[in-house]
Amino acid sequence: xxxxxxxxxxxxxxxxxxxYPQMANRHGLIAGATGTGKTISLKVLAESFSDCxxxxxxxxxxxxxxxxxxxxxxxxxxxxxxxxxxxxxEGYEFRKYPTAFWDVYAEQGMPLxxxxxxxxxxxxxxxxxxxxxQSDILTIIFKIADDENLLLIDTKDxxxxxxxxxxxxxxxxxxxxxxxxxxIAAIVRAVVALEAEGGDQFFGEPxxxxxxxxxxxxxxxxxxxxxxxxxxxxNPTMYATFMLWMMSELFxxxxxxxxxxxxxxxxxxxEAHLLFDSAPKALLEKxxxxxxxxxxxxxGIYFITQNPKDIPNGVLSQLGxxxxxxxxAYTPAELKSAKAAADSFRVNPEFDTFEVLTNLAIGEAIIxxxxxxxxxxxxxxxxxxxxxxxxxxLDDATRKNQITGxxxxxxxxxxxxxxxxxxxxxxxxxxxEQAEIAAEEAAALEKQKKKEEEKMAKKKxxxxxxxxxxxxxxxxxxxGNTIGKSIGGSFGKKIGGNVGASLGRxxxxxxxxx
Length: 514
Fold this sequence. Notes:
By secondary structure, the protein is of the alpha/beta class. Helices cover 50% and strands 12% of the residues. The radius of gyration is 42 Å and the shape is elongated.
């Protein structure tokens, strides 16, 4: 809860334990074994940031954060904690918070989408579990699409682009390097598998404008965006990649802000270990870079996981505000992990951190935060406040009303399918086919015309020869008759006619050959 302009987390005896808003963008960690109270701490922080006017994003993995849109109710456990901590005197009261619900699968919230281009080849390769060669080829596919001004919006755009480049691999290889058809075929199969897991719903337009999340309600409370991940978490790689995309979007969208009096937005990443499991070195470097640099954009990132060892050291060292719930140490490996977690806190001479850590009750934690000067405080054993909003899941009717009643619902509810690579390549394929048919028809007509011309020429030659032969015979006979008369008698006529006809045909034949 917000108290004296500071975020009250809980109490250590009579001492109030705060997170200072100006230090909240130094990131944080909420860790602890299952059932030790991590969700309570997450809700208390999210409510407090909202009261402070800071927008919040929550990944709801178990479905138990949705009740933030409803006022909390008193029960025996809450009453005991309120009385024990004297919270009534601090202004504790039940409240509801401005909440919007989102779901990649559009079942438990408004559809949440991005485009293939915005996700980029690196994160897509991670989702689809591509090897290095396939990842390089996917990057080239993006480059070709960019060079040819082809929009990659949804999965059918990407499939069409892959098929088109595969069919023209020889031509593209000259300019972009070798493009193995086998690797392209493998990427196509991975895209089809991604579609079967919901990628055809996640990739599309209207894509989320992250600025729609960075706002307050009319009371000045930061709006809380809850992504329902109960189904998404069943595909851990897609869940982790989506969360990384979210952080990257915030980083790329927001301008530099420097040190602010409070964050622009706070991002809570539940089941954080999934982000780092099996991530290649290049991706881990990108995550660490985003975590380090996004602070300057005024964004705080809080990781929620079971054990601090789930977070790489390069990221863990950036987390200034730490809430550590109980760690159970029943095996040598668990003892080692618990000891490492205890040693990461600034020592409090009043108690043994390791001993306290392994004996914390539900709803208790050891906490160290950055003070107003940015110095880590000594670790304190703290009882966490109870949330002010409702604990647990929402009924379907209430959730539906919350979804459809949101002002953003009209903007994001219906998917658009504007002209992009798929449509362009479809038109190109039709145009190429028509051009090929036209070329074949033109070639056939030209061939037919040539055959007809040859036929006419042959016929003409035959006619000319026939006429010539007839004319030659006539001329010859006349010539022969003349000679015959000179020789005399019928015998002379016969000889003269034969000689004349033969002579005439010979002369004319020679003339026509010239």
